[in-house]
Amino acid sequence: MELDELKASWNAFDKRLAETEIVNMRMVKEMVTQKTKTAFDGVVGHNIYSFVVTLLMMAVVFPYVYMNTPITTASFVIVEGAMLIGLGIVAWKLCLLSKVDLGAKKANELSGIVLRYKKVCHNETSWSIALVAFAMVAFYISELGFNNAAGYVLGTRIWLVVGLTLLTFALAFAIGLWQRSRHAQQMAEIERGLEELKEFEN
Known about the structure:
single chain; about 200 residues; mainly alpha
């Protein structure tokens, strides 16, 4: 009788231990999922911020500058075209990110989406720099070479324009480095989280 009670007690203890392990595993998985989701939300927020700022610059700020300064139509079209391309890239990245669903999709499938997103980001870095450089050079050639209404003369005003251009590039470079560093950190957290979630699926 005592042996049967001992077996029953041991089985009950073993069952409670298994249930506790399942609960602990579930809690760990939820913590990893939440951490990954926080990093993912940061990446989405970064792209939404870029989209909104670019849209405001394109739809409000630069049209206002165009209507209140003697900027040529060609210069306006060059800058607006460059911002439109940039807006399209951000929209493409947001479209990829919208496919991420931590609750419904497998970690391998999510890793594939993240990989495609990283490829877009990698390609964007190189040719977006080229696009901005081309747009700025084309803008100033258009303004300094063909804008008679502005009355530019070789001298102080041109050096002022060159100085402001360099300052703009320096500020954009500094802000871009900070954003890129933060974005890389968030992407690393997402990738670590997905690797850990794969272990729960095996």
